[in-house]
Design brief:
The chain contains 18 helices and 29 strands. It is an alpha/beta fold. An 8-stranded parallel β-barrel has the order 4-5-8-11-12-13-14-15. It has a 5-stranded antiparallel β-sheet with strand order 16-23-24-27-28. InterPro entries: GH (IPR017853), GLMA-like_second (IPR054746), Gly_Hdrlase_35_cat (IPR031330), Glycoside_Hdrlase_35 (IPR001944). Pfam families: GLMA_2nd, Glyco_hydro_35.
Length: about 650
């Protein structure tokens, strides 16, 4: 056992060497009265939740007095800014925590958590492609590349180190991880790849990236079919002229984001705590390409999770698909899921809506789940609130800023509890009882869908509203066909033999190494189907014909699907007939996960009517009824089935030989 050590790898949290399901609740202490903190923490602990997440608003712990900035963490100006006392309470009740000091936090806090003195410093802004500035509630956001802004962030983070981390970082205290930024830097991890940054700083940084990549302007000109005398002639007007331009911009966008994560978090390195980045999920099919091209880390220093404010998957198949996509691409923890913010819809008055989302993500292998927020709060100091004219002028949805914060959370503003609390307790109890099995259990799909990030960078650069990967996944869900999604950069040929069918999503411009990987996969012949455009050039703009020649030499193109979704659906139907696990009712999304001799079967009813779901599992037969928009998890060991968790405790289940 690794004592006194916190690690995060493979999307999973390890505390002292033991794998832990990241089961947490978010409690905005800064929105509540200090007098109720302990009462609510006791209620949280009684739920079985022993981990909290919370933002630390810069604006709540600093004040400019006579031109000098003062920092405070002991309640000098506001009782609920006594973060030291809050940390002592967490330690007293043995509750771990993940702190989120921003610098930008959003969280419906004034200035997104920035103090007024930061926004008054007139830092250079972020610039959109059309030349306008990127604003938040009417105020320009500081450009994260600006060195003076970075210096101010380091001053703030140094205060976090001195006042909080020095005494409360694990193992001395209960802080086990630090989240940087919020859903990217400025809630922009799911923005379109061409949304930013066209500022002078941004373009200079991009040009420096190109200089390091291509070294010589002649090399750049040849590959991009341009005639520039120097890199400095590159402007937004002549930036996008070929596929390679889009690939360059996509890779730089990733470097841009990761540089901020790495540089701003460096001050925390000595504490040896994991650095987390919460990524907001792509909000539409058209934004998926940008999300895939931008959000990854190859250094191993950054750990990602995802947040879910996409909308209600109970009523929206599009949201259902997006949740499946995000939680299949990476087995990460869900770092925020709505549990009572009514501006997302009246359905969030009930636990079933949030639990429905949890079931979707757990079925795919999510390694954590955060109840956001676990407590309603109604004691927000005036300096954290917007003026009404600001809300009326700039808020997309004014309801976000009204009334009790997260009014229908499991623990209410007055610390009372009700049905929602009991429903969450039941869910937490289930997770804790089967924690290790759920972390180890794996899906064993028959289908692999392979992709290349460069293909998505091109699609994003061209502003395509259509994403074929999304449409294939949509078809898989509709036909109840399980699948993996694999980055071709990480695919090893020998590991692909476990699949019965492989879709390879290709584009006209792909790196030569990726094309070689595809060519190697094609030796499996009957397993592999090419989806999309056949590659024609590589990253050096050299003509490539290896994939085309493969089909020419075979004398037929039966395994080249192109963009034919009807053929995809026919192939999925054939694949399903070969499976050892066959759900019969496509209205009930059904997933099998295995660990050793144990099987977990997740069933999620997408229909507005009660459904009977029948499944063939190897040589056995399973039949059960699931209520409308209901869900069920079964655990099977040694042919004994137990109804582990369900939206309806009276669900009828039969498991045995088919009659």
């Amino acid at each position: 056992m690794k004592e006194n050590k916190i690690e995060f790898y493979g999307g999973k949290l390890y505390i002292n060497g033991e794998k832990v399901f990241l089961l947490s609740g978010d409690y905005p202490y800064y929105r509540d009265s200090k007098d109720v903190w302990e009462e609510k923490l006791i209620k949280i602990k009684e739920l079985g939740v022993n981990m909290l997440t919370f933002y630390i608003p810069w604006i709540h712990h600093s004040k400019e007095i006579n031109g000098e900035v003062k920092y405070f963490f002991h309640g000098e100006f506001y009782d609920n800014s006594n973060l030291v006392y809050f940390m002592d309470l967490l330690k007293k009740h043995n509750i771990y925590c993940i702190i989120k000091p921003g610098p930008f936090i959003h969280a419906e806090v004034k200035n997104g958590g920035f103090p007024d003195f930061i926004l008054n410093m007139d830092f250079p802004p972020l610039i959109k492609e059309d030349g306008s500035t990127i604003n938040y509630m009417g105020k320009r956001l500081p450009n994260p590349l600006n060195l003076s802004f970075q210096k101010e962030v380091q001053v703030w983070f140094e205060q976090i180190c001195i006042n909080i981390l020095d005494d409360y970082a694990f193992p001395k205290g209960n802080i086990i991880a630090i989240q940087i930024g919020n859903e990217g830097i400025y809630c922009n991890a799911n923005n379109h790849i061409r949304d930013f940054d066209y500022s002078t700083l941004g373009l200079e940084n991009y040009i420096d990236y190109l200089k390091n990549l291509y070294v010589d302007i002649d090399n750049y000109n040849v590959l991009h079919s341009k005639n520039l005398k120097s890199f400095d002639e590159l402007e937004s007007e002549n930036m996008y002229q070929c596929d390679l331009d889009y690939i360059d911009w996509g890779k730089w966008s990733n470097v841009y984001m990761n540089r901020f994560y790495h540089d701003s978090s460096f001050i925390f390195k000595s504490y040896k705590l994991p650095i987390l980045i919460g990524l907001n999920s792509p909000a539409s099919e058209g934004l998926l390409s940008s999300w895939l091209a931008r959000n990854y880390d190859e250094t191993g220093r950054i750990n990602f999770g995802f947040t879910n404010f996409l909308g209600n998957a109970v009523n929206s198949f599009e949201v259902f698909v997006q949740l499946i996509l995000v939680s299949t691409l990476n087995q990460w923890p869900n770092l925020e899921d709505n549990w009572g913010h009514m501006w997302e819809g009246n359905e969030y008055r009930y636990a079933k809506t949030s639990l429905y989302h949890a079931m979707i993500m757990l079925s795919r292998g999510a390694t954590g789940y955060d109840t956001y927020n676990i407590c309603a709060t109604d004691h927000t100091e005036a300096h954290l609130l917007y003026e009404q004219f600001e809300i009326d002028s700039y808020a997309g949805n004014p309801e976000v800023y009204k009334g009790i914060y997260c009014a229908e959370a499991p623990i209410l503003a007055d610390a009372e509890t009700g049905d929602k609390y009991r429903d969450l307790f039941k869910f937490v109890t289930f997770i804790k009882e089967y924690e290790q099995e759920l972390l180890e259990a794996e899906r064993t799909p028959d289908l692999a869908i392979c992709y290349c990030k460069d293909t998505f960078a091109i699609q994003a650069g061209q502003k395509s509203a259509i994403n074929l990967l999304y449409q294939i996944v949509e078809s898989c869900i509709s036909s109840n066909t399980d699948f993996d999604i694999l980055d071709l950069e990480n695919v090893k040929k020998e590991e692909m033999q476990k699949y019965k069918m492989i879709f390879v999503y290709t584009g006209k411009c792909m790196p030569w190494s990726t094309q070689k990987t595809i060519k190697d996969l094609l030796t499996y012949e009957e397993l592999v189907y090419i989806v999309g455009d056949l590659p024609a050039i590589d990253e050096y703009s050299r003509e490539t014909t290896c994939i085309k020649n493969y089909f020419r030499n075979r004398g037929n193109y039966n395994h080249y699907i192109s963009n034919d979704l009807l053929k995809v659906k026919r192939l999925l139907s054939l694949l399903k007939e070969q499976s050892e696990f066959i759900p019969q009712n496509d209205e009930v999304y059904t997933v099998l996960r295995r660990v050793g001799k144990v099987k977990f079967i997740f069933m999620i009813n997408r229909s507005n009517e009660e459904q009977v779901n029948e499944c063939r599992i190897e040589n056995k037969y399973l039949k059960c009824k699931i209520e409308e928009k209901g869900f069920l998890i079964l655990r099977i060991e040694n042919d004994i089935v137990s109804q582990v968790y369900s939206s309806n405790d009276n669900t009828e289940v039969y498991f045995g030989m088919e009659s």
